[in-house]
Specification:
By secondary structure, the protein is α+β, with helices and mostly antiparallel strands. It contains 14 helices and 18 strands. Helices cover 53% and strands 16% of the residues.
């Protein structure tokens, strides 16, 4: 409820801001079109800007909290003691309070519903006026001549008037005026302003805002219509005459307006100077101030609290510093300082790597305490690290032991996805423990690649059959044709066996490559079976390492299927190329047979002649 009232307050404030800017700075200027967009921008801004909130986080230093172990125990005991006694409750008489939020909301809803009903009635009245009337289409406008005593108006592309009430010259002036309303879609402005009046009916400024929008639209229509009318005085007389018709239709651009005097004044006013455009930009500093004052949400957050434990009875025998994927560089630095100051332990952090989400994917931690054992935690990979840490245990005699923790195990290698965390122990004799690494999975084979046999016609074009001469009696032409036919037959006799040999070479080469690939795949499958058995024995089927390796195997198999499909496409493409070449050969043979028939026909005709 509070959010709704806050939005209404902010939106109403912005409406007041834009209206004041228009009333005091722009109302008397002749930049009517610019003022139209300014007023519409004010409506849109009043609804959109309250939703744009910038959240600013301010980090503050927390006060250190001292936790006393003895006090904690006493508090627990005290709670137990006091819980044994009956607790008496004093119940005050509740008074009935009115919830003003709900009352205001109910009033708003009643007003909203009433205006929505009024809006619907206005649409019904408009439909009653237009229903059953004869519409005359001219260009982009629809003219409706009515018999009712209603002031002329426009509604989108409809222009409605009563021609019997005006002279031809007056009617011409009115139509020019309404054409401007219709051509510039002023009905949209009217409807938008009406909707805002329904939503913000309780704000008196919105009704003045709507009046300013309608008035400015009339200024636009008067200004544009006056440019097309030769007699400006006659247009002004028409304005005065229309004032006698007080009946008009709502949610339309009607010719009658009560502010006739202002319209006539604006018609005769000189054009404003362009330097006055600065007034439109005067609203920007006010909007910036609104954002800075009301649209910035400041959130105060404490930094990580450091608890200073004040031990009064018995010190905690163990302390663990966890290293997680979200551990910051500052925390690692503070860890090293704490170990040095409180435990006299040297901790060196290096090889820190993070991903795009600022999560740890690699780290190396080296630990040393005087002449005692030296330990190393090293993690490297592409995925965020699993939780690990450094544990210090205090014995009864006061001596301290340090160890690296990974999950529930201590000083043990940690495997997380593609990560292998190695914990290497270095003692005084410089003997290092071997790191356990998983077996390397085999790589899937690739289909044998290599050049394909060169096609016989790769370096020259298929020979073209000669064309027989039109005049078979021309001995010279016939002799040339026979010579060309002989050369063509020789070329074809050479190409045909080459094409047959090419097909055999391609089939032989592909069968050899497929045999090699099948052998390699058989070896790969055997190697994968052995690899899976090794992983299962070492880590078990339920381990994350086994699952990760199985996922990688599935990825490799999918890639293998993609490669196989690509090879099949290549083979099919080669087969299509061969078929195209065979088709060209058949076409050439067909052409050659046709030429031979033509040649025989010509020879027969020569013999007859």
């Amino acid at each position: 409820m509070e959010v709704l009232f806050t939005f209404i307050a902010k939106s109403s404030g912005l409406l007041i801001l834009f209206y004041c800017a228009y009333y005091f700075l722009l109302r008397k200027e002749t930049f009517f079109t610019s003022s139209r967009w300014f007023l519409l921008a004010g409506l849109i801004t009043s609804v959109a800007l309250p939703f744009l909130v910038y959240t600013k986080v301010v980090w503050i230093e927390p006060a250190p909290v001292e936790v006393s172990v003895a006090n904690e125990n006493f508090s627990a005991v005290s709670d137990l003691k006091y819980s044994q006694f009956p607790i008496s409750h004093h119940i005050e008489n509740e008074s009935f309070d009115l919830n003003w939020n709900y009352i205001l909301l109910a009033i708003y809803i009643i007003g909203f519903i009433a205006l929505v009903i009024k809006f619907a009635i206005d649409f019904y009245s408009l439909n009653t006026v237009l229903k059953g009337k004869k519409v005359q289409q001219q260009a982009d406008f629809k003219f409706v001549d009515i018999n009712e005593d209603i002031a002329p108006f426009s509604y989108f592309d409809y222009i409605v008037y009563n021609s019997s009430m005006f002279t031809p010259s007056e009617l011409e002036n009115i139509i020019e005026h309404e054409k401007v309303h219709s051509d510039q879609n002023h009905t949209v402005d009217v409807l938008i302003s009406r909707v805002f009046c329904v939503l913000f009916w309780f704000n008196p400024i919105i009704w003045l805002y709507k009046k300013a929008i309608l008035q400015n639209l009339e200024f636009i229509a008067d200004s544009e219509a006056a440019k097309k009318i030769s007699d400006k005085k006659a247009y002004q007389y028409t304005l005065l005459k229309i004032t006698t018709h007080e009946s008009c239709v709502a949610i339309t651009n009607h010719f009658y307006q009560s502010l006739i005097k202002k319209r006539i004044v604006m018609l005769n006013k000189n054009q404003s100077k362009k330097r006055n455009y600065w007034k439109y930009y005067a609203i920007i500093p006010a909007l910036v101030a609104f954002v800075l004052l009301f649209q910035i949400n400041t959130i105060a957050q404490e930094k990580e609290r450091k608890e200073v434990k004040k031990v009064t009875e018995k010190q905690d025998p163990s302390y663990v510093f966890k290293i997680q994927k979200n551990t910051t560089d500052q925390q690692l630095k503070e860890m090293a300082e704490d170990f040095k100051q409180q435990h006299n332990i040297d901790v060196v952090v290096s090889n820190v790597k993070r991903n795009t989400k600022n999560e740890l994917i690699a780290i190396k931690v080296e630990i040393a305490k005087g002449t005692e054992n030296v330990q190393t935690l090293e993690i490297d990979g592409d995925e965020p690290i699993h939780d690990s840490g450094i544990a210090i245990t205090t014995e009864n005699n006061g001596s301290k032991k340090i160890g690296i923790v990974s999950g529930d195990s201590i000083e043990k290698p940690m495997v997380a996805g593609n990560h292998v965390a190695e914990v290497n122990e270095k003692n005084n004799s410089n003997v290092s423990a071997g790191a356990v690494t998983p077996p390397t999975p085999p790589s899937p084979p690739a289909f044998p690649a290599g050049p394909m046999p060169q096609a016989p016609n790769a370096n020259f074009k298929m020979p073209k059959a000669p064309v027989a001469p039109a005049n078979y009696k021309d001995k010279a032409a016939m002799a040339k044709f026979e010579k060309e036919m002989a050369e063509f037959e020789k070329k074809m006799a050479v190409i045909e066996p080459q094409m047959a040999e090419y097909e055999k070479q391609v089939e032989k080469l592909m069968s050899q490559r497929e045999a090699i690939y099948e052998k390699e795949m058989a070896k790969y499958e055997l190697a994968m079976d052995k690899f899976n058995l090794d992983i299962e024995k070492k880590y078990g089927k339920d381990s994350k390492t086994y699952e990760a390796n199985m996922e990688q195997f599935e990825i490799n198999m999918k890639q293998h299927e993609i490669d196989m499909r690509q090879r099949e496409k290549d083979i099919k493409q080669k087969e299509r190329d061969i078929k195209l070449q065979e088709r060209d050969m058949k076409l050439q043979e067909k052409d050659m047979k046709l030429h031979e028939r033509e040649l025989k026909r010509i020879e027969k005709e020569n013999k007859r002649s």
